[in-house]
Amino acid sequence: MESSLSNLILTLFNSINMSISRARLDRFISEKCQINRKKVRLLLAQKRVSVDDVITSDTAQIIDKFSLIKLDGQIIQENQAFYIMLHKPIGVVCATKDNKHKTVIELIDLNLTSAEKASLHIVGRLDLNTSGLVLLTNDSRWSEQLTSPVNKVAKRYLVTLKNPIHSEYISAFANGMYFSYEDITTKPVELNILSQYCAEVFLTEGRYHQIKRMFGRFDNPVIALHRTSIGSYILDESLPIGESKFIENIRSNIF
Ligand code: URA
Questions:
Q1: 127 lines ligand 1 (CB under 6 A)
Q2: Which of 3, 118, 143, 189 could form a disulfide with 173 if both were Cys (CB 3.0 to 4.6 A apart)?
Q3: For 33-46, what is each residue's pLDDT tens digit?
Q4: 74-83, 111-120, 178-187, 243-252: which has the minimum mean pLDDT?
Q5: Which atom of ligand 1 is nearest the CA belonging to 206?
Q6: How many CA atoms lie within 13 A of 91 on its CB side?
Q7: For residue 158, which of 199, 129, 127, 191 has the smallest C-alpha distance?
Q8: pLDDT tens-digit profile of 102-147?
Q9: What's the confidence (pLDDT) of residue 254?
Q10: Domains in the chain, please, with CATH?
Q11: pTM above the 0.90 mark?
């Protein structure tokens, strides 16, 4: 009886491809394996289910799409999360497809399958002619935490200007600038002058061409723009331009 139930369950989960973000364990098993909650509770009570290789009997345990779930030692869900840092060159577009330019996805060469590559999305885009740190992932909870305005995650940029930078820029950036097209005032931006033509800028939002437009108010064109960090994720400057690498131990280190 028990083993036939188990076989039935395993046959069913193989034919169902359900993806979840977050769910209670009992609900997940019930839907994935097409069995009622009573039977799920029984399986859990019999200690036949593990989450991330730990046996559990907790029906209300919250799991996500990257939790490794096994029934009787057989995998019923296994999805790998990818967290990638790319050193974006100028001339490559932050898009998944483009007819004209090479895309950041095309630059990723980490032995990912084409399905794994297709699952990636970009965490905060850069303009075509901006270089530096681009993060990519298939974990939307992580990317949402990094990009949500509520979290005010600071992105650091190094900016080279055509004309000398003046100290009056500092307060103008800190006070915010009105962008009539979007009808918004930019959030306070920290600007530190590094030399006559170079500054570092910290943005907590990402308006269209924001840095170029802000310096544009002073008729000072941006010659070069390079992103060095997003929150606590710092571009590994030893990573050659155009190359990428996996970021490890991400789940305990969101910011
Ligand atoms: N601001 C810009 O103008 N361009 C970028 O790529 C990022 C911020």
A1: yes
A2: 189
A3: 999 999 999 999 99
A4: 243-252
A5: 8
A6: 3
A7: 199
A8: 999 999 989 999 989 999 999 999 999 999 999 999 999 899 999 9
A9: 53
A10: 2-77 (3.10.290.10), 83-246 (3.30.2350.10)
A11: no
The residues annotated with a catalytic role in the active site are: 127
Tokens of 228: 């060095």
Helix extents (H) in 119-209? 140-147, 168-175
Ligand 1 lined by 212 (C-beta under 6 Å): yes
Contact at 8 Å (CB) between 84 and 100?
no
| Backbone dihedral angles phi then psi of residue 3, each to the nearest 5 degrees | -70, -30
Which of 92, 126, 134 has the most ligand 1 atoms within 8 A of CB, as the residue to mutate? 126
Ligand 1 center from residue 116 Cα (angstroms): 28
Q: How many other β-carbons are positioned within 10 Å of the β-carbon of residue 196?
A: 11
Q: What is the mean pLDDT of the chain?
A: 91
Residue 118: φ, ψ to 5°: -65, -20
Q: Cβ(211) to ligand 1 under 6 A?
A: yes
User: What is the 250 CA–ligand 1 centroid distance (Å)?
Assistant: 26
Question: Which token pair is 69?
Answer: 């779930």
In total, the chain counts a number of residues equal to: 255
Distance CA 38, CA 45 (A): 11
